[in-house]
Amino acid sequence: MVTLFKIVGESIRQALGQLRANKLRSFLSLLGISIGIFCIIGVLSAVDSLESNVRGSLEKLGNDVVYVKKWPWANTGGDWWKYFRRPHPDYSDYEVVKDKVKNAELSAFHVVIGFKTIKWKSSSVEQTILIGSSITFAEMFKLELEKGRYFSPSEDFYGSNKIVIGHKVAEELFGNVEPIGKPIKLMGRKYEVIGVIEQAGNDLLNPLDFDECLLVPYSNARNLANMKARNIFDATITVKAAEGVSNQQMKDEVKGILRAHRRLKPKEDDNFSLNELSMISSVFDNIFGSLNVLGFIIGIFAIIVGMVSVANIMFVSVKERTNIIGIKKALGAQNWVVLSEFLIEAVILCIIGGMIGLLFVYAIVTILSNVINFELFLSVSNMIWGVAASVLVGVFAGLIPAIMAARMDPVEAMRQ
Q1: Confidence (pTM)
Q2: 275, 69 contact by CB (below 8 A)
Q3: Which of 26, 226, 257, 361 is the most buried (most CB within 10 A)?
């Protein structure tokens, strides 16, 4: 064990000596390793940051929620026409689910009517998204209000002309004017603004981005559009599982109740889809897996160049110290001792290059996070991967020069 520590210490001194004695040669050799580690870890960090952002956004919707929709989230293959002919979930479906599903903690309903223009005095905002929502919509989607309030039960029941608007809509329509209580015009009707939804976060994929939305009670929305029409953009029943109940249990119950409500025969296919976030997650698993492989392939070529350059510096090092190797072997140094010295020296050089590459990644990640307003990070696991890759490159780069040094004849070596 003492001998091993001496070998490691000697190898570190020799590696640092190489760096000091041949600064330009060492710099050019280590640059390849640094660039390789930078490419691999940089791409992995970018993909991890993107994945964390996307998955974090999806988790806001909850993993214990089932979405009853016309369209499936999974691949529809060649059955597009089959799904197109399905009816949208309607309010009667929602009422049945709300009343009869025992495994649900909460259920909600909303329908996206389409893009509309709203006006206040001489100001107007086009292409706002009009949504008719149930009273439980705010609780289901954890709706946070910047100002005002959500609909009251009586406003929901009677279909009052009350409206909750998104942050961006309020900003463009009212500017610095207080929007609460102001009358606006939507589709020829007057509505009173009772709430402003809090501004959405900076997530790349934000499923709870209501910045450009308008919310009205569903009982009011059905006076604005034909809810049975196929040109309705979307209608969704969301069902949250009760504590201790799996999504599959709840899906089975929802499926049975909806089939009975829609009077489907036993041999008939479902005319609705039960979706959950795991369907989307599986798609992203494939995408992020492919991006990681692509990043690895890009980086591996840079690392091969770096490996060759480190191997070159190790061959030169062996050549320069041939007589010293001969003296060591003549004094009794075993082959494995000589091999270990050069192998550890190569590993130390690669670790130094890898650390430089990791510093570059950290600097770029920090700068970009502040510039593009998107959270990038260098994880501990990626740092460990970077160091491990450096060690592996050092082993491969130093193996042949180390074997050559270990096999030298001591007499011939001392004559050099």
Answers
A1: 0.68
A2: yes
A3: 361
